[in-house]
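Morning F.,

Quick status update on the modeling queue. The single chain you submitted on Monday has been processed. Sequence for confirmation:
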Amino acid sequence: MAILSPSPKLQFFDANGNPLVGGKLYSYTAGTTSPLATYTDSTNTSANTNPIILDSRGEASVWLAADAYYKLALYSATDVLIWSVDSITAASSGTSSNPLATLAASGGAGLIGYTQGGTGAVATTVQAKLRESVSVKDFGAVGDGVTDDTAAFTAAATASQSVLIPAGTYLLNTAPTTGSTIFYLEKGANATGAFGSTSVFYETSAGDRYVQANTQVDEFSTVHVRRQANHSGGTEGYVSSALRADTYISAGNTNYEWAIVGRVYNQASAGNNVGVYAQGIKAASGPTWGAVSEVRDLTNLANSSSGTVGLEVNVFANGTDATNNRIGVDVVTGQGVTGVGNAACEAYAGVRIVGRNMTGDVGNFNFGVVVDSAIIGGITLRNTGTYGIVFSNASNIVVGIDFSSATFGATAIRLGRAQKIQLENTGVIEIQSLGAADNRLKFINGGTEQLGVNLGNVNTEARLVITGECNYGIDFSTATTATNAIKVSRGQGITWETSNTITQSLDATLNILRVNFSGTERVGFSVSSTAASNNIRINSTQVVGPRATGWSAATGTATRTTFATSTVTTAQLAERVKALIDDLTAHGLIGT
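Structure tokens below.
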């Protein structure tokens, strides 16, 4: 059959019907402003200038590439737009005799209309609709696990911020340039090789989907969000986040509202199964937290009638815990980088309690740690370290540890044998509990025992032992005692030497205070309410008794020089008797 011949030349006119001499015809890819070449003849080997400058008759030879779609714009010689027409093909100019071939060409979808169902839908073309999503296969990706698809991934990321990866295995020999583009992997899709830090929304064979840095087969999440924070600046107190949930509770709400809930229902017999896990990875010098839990009271009211809890930890179970596996808060240290030669972790504190708020003002805790429960051990410290509990900068703390209002079944503080309480930060004054082999409570200075209290039941052990050099072993000079400073029962003694050979005691039945040597009385003091019964004894024999009265002072001269008994006169003897009476009276042995 015959068809209408197309115009061999295109001629254009101005508004007055005159040839558009010097006019300009621009050619673009349909729907864009990207230049697309036209040709001077049917061989498509000689391209026109773009724009085409019309001749003196307003004409030009304009041949279009087969199956290409153009947008043509006609301007006057002075660059005034006359008209612009989009989606022009060789078929529309009558050069194609096969409409199906035209539709099957790469631009055919632009000739097919499409309108979404529903009221208010806007008409478009199939081509525009399909271009709403981009696939790596649109840019030549093969997905056979052998062909390098790096260039296709880079081109797709350049074209769109979200790119689909259909089923297949895509090899990337080098990391693609992806910018902030997110790739969506369909079921059965996998990217191997240098996928780098590309963000991927992954869909597993089970239908689970998540965003991750790469497709590790040993870690799967239903939703995994990865955020690349590469901006600078910011204001302290304001945070950016990969995932945020805000729940606003109205005044009349009485439900239990939780912004984020993590729950693991564990029926496994092994593994580490966690309801909520937070990890901070410190790869540079910036401050890093694994998790922060904060409650902020904005009521500005004192003595709140309802709870304000920063972090609550609950452990619900039944029965005893002989294996010590139920733990409310478990603080663990370990190596950040494992391997031979890497030092063990030394952490400053397992739990630190400080008071401060957003403006830097200091707040106060009435109690740093409160144990309010019917439990066996309130606080148990098991570790190898220098300090178990440390109070620092505690000038405002009146009492470090207060047990005054507690009711203990038996013991307030328990120490193991040979464990110590250090009284000064110099480390020289200590109180040591019962020794490893004895029952002595020791008070130590500079590593040497200065005072010991024996608490055993062995009769030969001294109960109070004072060692070292001191002015006074026991000083009661500034004490106000009701009656007695020291009280010793009958028959009990005071030992003066560690050899236990010299003792002092009050007789069990008689009122005699004895000083014994090797168990034998050497000096005794008889004490009685009857004056005549008071005396001093030497070797169990009385040597001094109560004062003999009835004596009067003699007159005359007292002489204490020697004399011969064979020649002494009565006067000389009287002088010496007077001296003896004077001395006995002066010493209080005799008197008036």
